[in-house]
Amino acid sequence: MIAEGFKPEQQYETLRNSSVETVRRAIRNGNYRGHTAGLGKGLLQCNLVVLPERYAVDFFRFCQRNPKPCPLVGVSETGSPMMKTLGADIDIRTDVPGYIVYREGLPAEEVPNIIDLWQDDFVAFALGCSFTFEHALMQNGIELRHIETNLTVPMFRTSIKLHEAGPFSGETVVSMRPIPRNDVERVAAISRKFPYAHGAPIHIGSPEEIGIKDIKSPDWGNAVDVRPDEVPVFWACGVTPQNVLAQAKPTISITHKPGLMLITDVPEDAEIPVLSQQQ
Amino acid sequence: MIAEGFKPEQQYETLRNSSVETVRRAIRNGNYRGHTAGLGKGLLQCNLVVLPERYAVDFFRFCQRNPKPCPLVGVSETGSPMMKTLGADIDIRTDVPGYIVYREGLPAEEVPNIIDLWQDDFVAFALGCSFTFEHALMQNGIELRHIETNLTVPMFRTSIKLHEAGPFSGETVVSMRPIPRNDVERVAAISRKFPYAHGAPIHIGSPEEIGIKDIKSPDWGNAVDVRPDEVPVFWACGVTPQNVLAQAKPTISITHKPGLMLITDVPEDAEIPVLSQQQ
């Protein structure tokens, strides 16, 4: 249990060595509101999109048609906040460290939980996140600049069109990681093994070809250097839905705060993002 | 163009060496009503489930929660028969060689097309199929008994519970392929690479552990021998939804006839089952 009054850095260091139950309790009780990178080691983490059910069929279609930015890993029953297939006791109203509430597609407020906002017609969608393939890359000896330098990965709007579904359309958001030229092929092959975590890179090498004007000015996150022996490698990014909501303008929608993800009970190397089935 | 009056075997042999456009035209015109194994070489083939939109959110949930039997590879707009993300001109009403119509979940009739049955509230779901990983296994030198002997792969009901979603629940249907003991690990690793085609085996070795009483009496398809040096290997099967419809009892639903699949324009080794995106 994390005591109130801890400084965020102390909390993070304590939670980094804690069980997922302890981490989840600290988040649920409002005692930890920081980022989740490195917490719940080895477990799948997710992006979150909550929408009223009348948008659900189109959002399902949107995710099915755009599985690289929006790999669907879990969906609640309509009106139920429990993510049954992702854990034994995951309550989507409290188990993310921070939420953004959108009205008509625009960010309206940031809240620590969504207990009072929850509606009987809400459906919660969990989407895979890049932590999974980043861990696999690091286990294979690939160093990631933004992690080494303790920065948030740089993210960019692109000209890569999404397949539309109902009101959901727009362009893909990507994250960028500089990779040594000789490692690019191996990095692509490793990340391709994780279809629930954005899969293989969506573009390699030329930011201008995908509509990125200045690699030093990301739209989200922090700029990182690309050294002469390195190539900028771009992956589809879980921030894409937040970009799409701005255009779709649902009356109300809720996402996680970037970097503050849902930690599940599913191992991140599981073949499918579903708690093992009972027989 | 396949002339009327051809014998099915002659048609099949001709179409086997034809372009996908020719194959699709023959199917669309009602001139070919046979199985699609070996046709449209190198292209993704799919199982089909058509449902009224009021069942769509739950069926989406069902597929998301059971991605091994039900890997979703394409979904139509409500009321539109075109499968836009799977091909430039795929009409789900005519482009499958044979359909089964279910009323209250029970097979009511078999029809060569569903033009007259199409409803404004229909949503068509395409699910990946085992042809994809079978081709990859054969390319890696693994012989498949049912193909060698020109039989339909044996399929069995099991006790492996599905994750339910609304009215959709029940048990997984599996297909079985005997694999030489020494190749089992390699076969599992190869098929795991195809998450949109049922992925890795769901069980290896003991039919009785998954509720199969007699390996020589499949529920669908033909029995094949398991030789002393072989192990029975079980994959989740695209016939599962047909089993589930019987319990869900939607007023009307339509599937392909087993073995008579939808042939798409998407390469079967594509990372995602979506025609390449325009930029």
From TrEMBL, chains A, B:
<comment type="similarity">
    <text>Belongs to the D-glutamate cyclase family.</text>
</comment>
<dbReference type="InterPro" id="IPR016938">
    <property type="entry name" value="UPF0317"/>
</dbReference>
<dbReference type="InterPro" id="IPR038021">
    <property type="entry name" value="Putative_hydro-lyase"/>
</dbReference>
<dbReference type="InterPro" id="IPR009906">
    <property type="entry name" value="D-Glu_cyclase"/>
</dbReference>
<dbReference type="Pfam" id="PF07286">
    <property type="entry name" value="D-Glu_cyclase"/>
</dbReference>
<protein>
    <recommendedName>
        <fullName>Putative hydro-lyase O4H49_17485</fullName>
        <ecNumber>4.2.1.-</ecNumber>
    </recommendedName>
</protein>
<keyword id="KW-0456">Lyase</keyword>
